[in-house]
Amino acid sequence: MSAAVPPARQPRRLLECADATSSPIGSCVSWASRFRVRQYVTGSLWVVPLVGAVLGVVLGSVDVLVDRSVHLPAEFTYSASTASTVLSSIVGGAAALTGFVVTVTVLVVQMATQTFSARYMRLWYRDRVLKALLALLVAALSFSFTLLRHVEHKFVPNLGTSIAGFLLLLGLMLFVIFLDRMLHRLRPVAVAALVSDYLERDFTRLIATLTAPEIFWGRPGETGGTPQLVARCARRGAIQAIDVAGLHSWALSHDRLVVVRHAVGDFVSAQAVLIEVFGDGPADPGDEQRLRRMVVLGVERTIEQDPGFAIRIMVDIADKALSAAINDPTTAVQVINYLGESLRMIGTADVSESRFTGVAAERRGVVIPVRSWEEYLALATTEIRDYGASSIQVIRRLRAMLEELLEELPERRREPVREELRRLAATVGRSFGESVDLDRARIADPQGMGGTSPTG
Which pTM value belongs to this model? Predict the structure, then answer.
């Protein structure tokens, strides 16, 4: 791209190619398209097994060529009938085990969604061990079938037959690992820990993205004036991710202020205002489509740029545990353990606090709506406090979490925590006002019941 040509006057195709980051799909594919492809591949259960099937056929054909040129010792050779029987058994065993794995997975997902949260499915079908197991079994099946076609009285793929048996044995071992992993992940505390790990990983990336110069964390209502360009949603959906770096680059190259009107995680209707562009002079109407492609819409929220969705999943698990049908307050206490850690991480970061002071302050850059610290805190505590109001251990563990946050967070974040403590005290007074356990309900306990507390 020539520096002598102003960005606004460059051919649109050239501009899109220059700003698009390289990818295996193509350098001129939009960021939103690449994000959707990554999400689809990550969430799909058939892509990796399909790769395994293709590799099985390719490696089987290669093995036939190798077997024709090598000679193995007698103890590693097979007769034609024995090789046909072994390979046929491996094909049938791999197919049966694949069907069994799928059946077990469906049953586990059904149990998990009933016990935890329907949002947990998004994490389950991304499990790498499950995909690796399916890919290995399908590869063993296609590899064995490819060899079976070449078994003759004059030629037996001895090496390949042994390899096929090893692949099936490896699949059985991986199935045991998968079963162990699956059973351990049926524990609510394991799910909460998994979601918390996802939150920590993606929140660190989010902070790194939003700390670039001229990226402002504000609320849409803080801007003013008349926008020179408005990009509207082409279809409805939940905002899954925003190409902050792409918007930032576009804003600087065009000397504009780009204001995103909805936060990641919001559901927007078709034709709703998505992005507004402010600046001096008229904007190119053709840029609306390009700006729109920097926002990804989908059926459901994702954790990648939406820390609130991870907190939502953990709160859902606690809410279901506190329901009358399950009545398991200890599970809610275990979830609060990881909620407290997640809130501490968010509360000590600077990304959830507005820095934007209005259009008059800056004429170019990007304004990204983010949740405030108060909103994260309310999301994590309100429903658990409400549904667990009659559970003394939930109330005590909530108090311990809030008091820990009060000690560890910077002063500017402490007032919302104090407000939550006041709300908790009011809830305790309403639920235990005439109970003999009122004094115990007012004590913080890191274990809910049975732990130690400085005030206990």
Answer: 0.82
